[in-house]
What we know:
With 197 residues, the protein is an all-alpha fold. The chain contains 7 helices and no strands. Helix 4 runs antiparallel to helix 7. It is globular and about 45 Å long.
Amino acid sequence: MNLTIVNLLNLAGETLRAPRQGARQVLNLGLTPAVLWQLVILVVVLGVLLGWLTLAFLVPQTQGSPFSLFRSPLALGIVQGSILVLMIFGTYWIGRAFGGAGDFEGTMAVMVWLQVILLMVQLVQTIAFLLVPPLGALIGYLALVMTIWLFVNFVAELHGFESLGMVFLGTGGVFLGIVLAIVPVLSLIGVGAPPGG
């Protein structure tokens, strides 16, 4: 499959309708590790650009605001990149620990694809915030549910699990691990530090 904008949009639509089938198509692309790491960097950069623009336009520039640090593209990139890498390693290791059959390259592929879909949703949400703010907030809530649903289905397809319920429970472990691992990173770049501290 050629990775054109039209094909990506079509695959995104198919993934939303049938997540496991969409994940399988991504896995069948057989992307090499070099390409996958480039895609990891690309989605982080695009996420930083979109996130930075969203914060710049939508979040008041209040000193000491919890969002003030993330007006720095570097800080935003460190956080987003750390979260994505932790998701990849956590999904791979925890899945394999529970008997999953997925490989590391496949894990990278489906996690990058999840980020691509979330970037599309984030773009729509940002436009909605600018035009109809309540609609933007609603899209945000729906995006959270969608993210969990896609993640669970992607992991099930990646590792060959049949029970989505068990994958959902395992998902809690992945996200707990991410939170515990990301806290030191946030501390190092100053998130949570008192103003003037």
